[in-house]
Amino acid sequence: MSPFAHITGWGMAVPEKVLTNFELEQMVETTDEWIVSRTGIRERRIVSDDQTTASLATEASRRALEIAKINPGEIDLIIVSTSSPEYLFPATASLVQDRLGAVRAGAFDLLAACTGFIYGLNIATQAIRTGSIRTAIVIGAETLSRFVDWTDRDTCVLFGDGAGAFVLQAGEERAGLLSAVMRSDGSGGDLLYLPGGGSRYPTTIDTVNEGLHNIKMKGREVFRFATRVMAQATKEVVNKAQLSMDDIQLIIPHQANKRIIEVALKKLDFPMERCIVNLDRYGNTSTASIPIATCEAINDGRLKPGDHVVFVGFGGGLTWGAAVARWSGPFPGIKVVRPAFYSLYARLRSIINRVLRRIDAFILGRDNPYT
Ligand code: ACO
Predict the structure, then answer these.
(1) String of b and e for 2-19 (b: at least 16 CB within 10 Å)?
(2) 197 lines ligand 1 (CB under 6 A)
(3) DSSP H helical ranges for 219-270
(4) Tell me: the pLDDT tens digits for 63-106?
(5) Which of the residues 71, 214, 254, 278 is marked catalytic?
(6) What band does 305 get if pLDDT is binned at 50, 70 and 90?
(7) Residue 288 in contact with ligand 1 by CB distance below 6 A
(8) Is the domain defined by 4-326 classed in CATH 3.40.47.10?
(9) Is any ligand 1 atom within 6 A of the Cβ of residue 223?
């Protein structure tokens, strides 16, 4: 029988710097009352100058590896879901691979906006289920504060920075992701997008002056779309897992807006007490919001082994999706892991590799195809 993909580790990383609604009142024409009543958000975290998408992703991953009790050398695949990558290329996932010292892992980025973490979980699960790999790490990481127009009150009050990671490992018992749906409707691409800096509008003085490097959003239309698809996708994915809504202990939705979550739950006739909402403290961290909310649910004792949990999200693309998981936790055992040692070794190894490439080029010549 094909193995299941157990979720055996989890970790989150958010910047220390808190930006409150009251501070935003000093920056744009808005009020704490407006933001709380329309969105539920009270504060969000913002990266400092030395923090990036890769640094948050690496921090969250190290915590997840510690919980799973595995060393980075055991990882076969790293997926970083992000809409705010470190560069267009190389992939942020490759930077994370290098910093973790995950010497055997393949690594790639996935862009499905806020739905990306669900897509990533499903792709990694399928790779484990076919036997192609045994261990993966899926990360949702964003620094959208770097892409927000801080003079645009329609968008700047919504977003926050952060990262969350899950470790997935092959296991015999029926656990981990049981079903998933992944959907897209590109006809709504212009409802939420960042036009500049890609191949369509490469960066020029004009694109910068026109603010094309900032997030553009038609909030009301995204709101309508979100409330429609969240309930639909949840019903579909629960059906696909051959379960009913009564079998679901917890829903962990994408944390964009409390009102969107309330409307979706009402359509599902599902109680708010069995749903995780932490957007009041982090705002919309896009694809990082589901793993961050999951980490907090576990720490608060709200998600336990044996529980069935639904992850459901929506976002730019347009994209949306959902997954049902049977929660299990780390595999038993008292294996010693040394994340601090690995971090140090990974750094050293990376430096040595760079130096070796330069020495090779010097000795063998820059035209040598093997350097
Ligand atoms: N402070 C004060 N007033 C504001 C602010 C603000 N920060 N922002 C907008 N307003 C004003 C508008 O200008 C408008 O004024 P007008 O009536 O004079 O034109 C008024 O408030 C109402 O605006 P609406 O757009 O109708 O407000 P709404 O109740 O729809 O709330 C919001 C806006 C919060 C953006 C909501 O539509 C929403 O959450 N939409 C979904 C957005 C979302 O989830 N995006 C992320 C998707 S995930 C991803 O892929 C990253």
Answers:
(1) ebbbbbbbbbbbbbeeeb
(2) no
(3) 219-240, 258-268
(4) 999 999 999 999 999 999 999 999 999 999 999 999 999 999 99
(5) 254
(6) very high
(7) no
(8) yes
(9) yes
